[in-house]
Amino acid sequence: MLQAFVITLREGLEAFLVVAISLSYLRQSGRSQLAAAVHWGIAVAVAVSLLGGWLLLNAANQEWLDGPLAVLAAVSVSWMIVHMWRSGRRMKGDIEGHLRASSSRAGRGAFLGVFLFTLLMVSREGMETALLLMQLRDTMHLALGALAGVLGAAGLAWLWSRYGHRVNLSLFFQVTAIFLVVFVAQLLIRGVHEMAEQNFLPWSETIHARTESWGPDSPFGHLLTYLLVILPLGWLTIKGLFSKRPVFRPPVPPSIPPAPVTQRSSAH
């Protein structure tokens, strides 16, 4: 459940931020008529993500694809971690730059450019989410964790759109990246083990025997599960102690100046 929560929280937040930044930029640049292209892009991206999730679910039922899909998910997560760690602070500027180029065309070209940009960005997050969730097995807890993650992502995106710089997104991406690094280790172990079981690798019998004791029910598997919580909380504690900027700083209400004191003239 925790893994599904963090996956949908992170991926959902990126998707919500793309939408929020896009609509805000179009409104501020006087191109509000292109907001419909963003809405259509979201709708088609959701449909593409659902179709991709259905295809991945059917693929996951094929035993020989278990290992390759787990390794592919690990590579996808690793790329996402590196990308967001390096460019998370420039996310707003990058999105606005792409939108500026897409909406600079005339007429239908601007609509199509904004639509394709939204479709690509949102469907990418949806497909990554589907690929990662396919690696988790507990259906009921997975659904609850995924739903909680989406709601949390919507809440964080709302805070960002409302309070802007007061939300420390950089720290959020750092903490979730540390969590996902441990998740990548779990995916790689599982993927290599399954591929060795299908004799896809050189020395498959030796690799399969060695990784048999690294499963989720082994002491090493339990250690990775504990690290999923301990490492992110440790990093959050360190940043909280030594950083001057919290995850979220509520706005300070404006101070009301005191009413001027009027002196009453005394009658002589």
Task: Write up this protein.
There is one protein chain. The chain is mostly helical and 268 residues long. The protein has one domain. It is built from nine helices and no strands. α1 packs antiparallel against α5 and α7 packs across α8. It is globular and about 65 Å long. 34% of the residues are buried. The mean pLDDT is 77.
Q: Classify the secondary structure makeup into a structural class.
A: mainly alpha
Helix content: over 70%
Radius of gyration: 24 Å
SSE string: HHHHHHHHH
Average pLDDT over all residues? 77
Query: Uncertain regions: pLDDT < 50 for 5+ in a row?
Result: none
Number of strands: 0
Morphology:
globular
Amount of beta strand = under 5%
Number of separate structural domains: 1
Helix count from the secondary structure assignment: 9
The N- to C-terminal Cα distance equals 82 Å
Largest sheet: none
Quick description:
It is built from 9 helices and no strands. With 268 residues, it is mostly helical.
Distinctive features:
single chain, about 270 residues, mainly alpha
